[in-house]
Amino acid sequence: MDRRSTLGFPPLLGDGQGHYRVHLVGNSGAGKTTVARTLGEILDLPVISMDPIFWKPGWIQSSKEEFQAKLRAAMEEAERTSGGWVAEGNYLSHGGNILHDTSTDTIWLDPPLLLYFPRLLLRTFRRLFGLQQTCSVGCSESVRETFFSKESIILWCLTQHSSNRTRNNANMREIGLGMGANIERRRMRRLGGWGTDLRDWLADVRQAADKQEDHGHDSQDLDRKKI
């Protein structure tokens, strides 16, 4: 299923009242963080990244209870102050399903491995040389961990590409727009290909957000005239 299969739907569903809780999923390096920041700017919503919530300084993992508590707190704060959020990350085994269950929109970034693996390599080298911020404060990347460890992000990316697709294809069959078995919870769309689908979708989101903002201004003007 590609973007053409969801052209009959708005780029984001929201909750029907102009509020959005968007969850971006996909393999490491697929572009979740970059797209989340772009969406956050378009929608004027805070971005919740799960890596800094999960990892403590020195690559110490948060317990499942800690992770879920911090994630819920971030979600509640974002909804209280901004009416919604854009979140990125998986962490299903630690409670990332909290986002899966409460999002109004789930966006699966699924570019070809040949497209995003070189980007992940570049990002990794930039982090090794201190040219790019690491995924969490106090979690520096080392040559040993990067190239000679079972925990290598490069190895993780390669080994998780197929399983990530299997898991998210199953989710699409359950909640995919226009196809999910759970009709009431259909909210997931896949953005694959070599970049055109993603660029076009972001353009559609920006256009819809601009229209919503213009409508809000028109409503305010009408209210002033009534006064």
Trace the largest sheet across and list its strands. Answer: 2-5-1-6-7
Number of helices: 8
- Terminal-residue CA separation: 50 Å
Q: Can you give the mean pLDDT?
A: 91
Structural class: alpha/beta
- CATH architecture descriptor text: 3-Layer(aba) Sandwich
Secondary-structure element string:
EHEHEEHEHEHHHEH
Strand content: 5-15%
Please summarize the sheet with the most strands.
5 strands, parallel
Q: Remind me, CATH topology? A: Rossmann fold
Helix content: 40-55%
Protein name: Adenylate kinase
InterPro entries: Cytidylate_Kinase-2 (IPR052922), P-loop_NTPase (IPR027417)
Report on the architecture of this protein.
With 227 residues, the protein is of the alpha/beta class. It has a single domain (3-112, 163-215), classed as Rossmann fold (3-Layer(aba) Sandwich), CATH 3.40.50. It has 8 helices and 7 strands; from the N terminus they run βαβαββαβαβαααβα. The chain has helices at residues 32-43, 50-54, 64-82, 97-102, 113-128, 143-147, 153-175, 196-226; strands at 21-25, 47-49, 55-56, 60-61, 85-88, 105-109, 188-191. The strands form 2 sheets. Strands 2-5-1-6-7 form a 5-stranded parallel β-sheet, with helices on both faces. A two-stranded antiparallel ribbon has the order 3-4. Helix 1 (32-43) packs parallel to helix 8 and helix 5 (113-128) crosses helix 7 (153-175). The relative contact order is 0.17. This is Adenylate kinase. InterPro entries: Cytidylate_Kinase-2, P-loop_NTPase.
